[in-house]
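quick one, 142 residues, struct below
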Amino acid sequence: MRSLMALSLFAALTGPALAGPFDGLFVSRPEACQWIAFEGGSAPFQHDFFVLSLADGIEANQFHCTFLDTKAVKDGSALVITAFCEYPDESFPDLISLSEFDENSITVTSLYRMQEDAARGVNGMGGSQTYTRCPDLKELPR
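---
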């Protein structure tokens, strides 16, 4: 009984926090939603953009991040994600944050990317990028 109550409490605390502003499929270029609608799951390989969903992580042509652990801040306005990312000849751990930018988009910040940008002398929003929600899509079609 105690473990059932703990499991119910865990579901109540994590379920809604992971939905809402972070529910659905997000793309790094707004026009990519149309490309996915017409080309399906091959669109990221035909065009230069990233796709993000909580279920599938981040995907792009020859790049993938698997989300290993996701934690919501208390009010559910942001997530912190531990990820394992891979290029064909490189793999690395990353710490990624998601925060709501507006009702149709989120800001994705990668600690790994911040370090890369700082090493190259990039100023401004190093390591951060805005992703747009694709209406009516929950995942990349396979």
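The radius of gyration is 16 Å.
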